[in-house]
Design a protein that fits this description.
It is a single chain. The chain is of the alpha/beta class and 140 residues long. 31% of the residues lie in helices and 26% in strands. It has one domain. The strands form two sheets. A four-stranded mixed beta sheet has the order 3-1-7-6. A three-stranded antiparallel beta sheet has the order 4-2-5, with helices on one face. The chain is elongated, with a radius of gyration of 17 Å. The model has no long low-confidence stretch (mean pLDDT 91). InterPro entries: DUF8009.
Length: 140
């Protein structure tokens, strides 16, 4: 693998806290997968952007995918609001109330989670795990 195709040359990734949070929520609320993706050519400091897919093409593109839960502190992941079980006999009004309450809880979680980005993470490479620093672009 050439130097610019080698993800072990990455020392840090820069992420938008909003992208990390949006990717995590997407993965919990929708089909498909959302990750933070860095694409070659690789260098010491890389920007990782949100990427949504149904089929992982990282092997073909050479991209590095970082799961959003690997970029969030454990407490933020553990405190993601769960959707209340809907009873089979719940009225449309009850169902709407449950969905609205869940949406409000997710919005509150988003605000807290934007400040819960980790300082470092591990990238999975063909040569094994590779530790990198994480730099947040949009705190506050």
């Amino acid at each position: 693998m050439t130097a610019d195709g080698d993800p072990s040359s990455i020392r840090s990734i820069a992420v938008s806290a909003t992208d990390v949070v949006d990717a995590y929520v997407y993965g919990r609320e929708n089909p498909g997968t959302a990750v933070l993706r860095a694409t070659p050519p690789f260098h010491g400091r890389m920007r990782a952007r949100i990427h949504v897919y149904h089929e992982d093409d990282a092997r073909v593109t050479g991209a590095v995918h970082v799961s959003p839960d690997a970029l969030l502190e454990d407490d933020a992941v553990a405190n993601y609001p769960t959707l209340e079980d809907k009873r089979a006999d719940a009225s449309a009004e009850e169902t709407d109330r449950i969905r609205k309450r869940h949406a409000e809880a997710v919005d509150d979680w988003r605000e807290r989670a934007r400040g819960a980005i980790v300082d470092a993470t591990t990238l999975e490479t063909d040569d094994g795990p590779h530790a990198v620093d994480v730099k947040t672009l949009d705190i506050g």
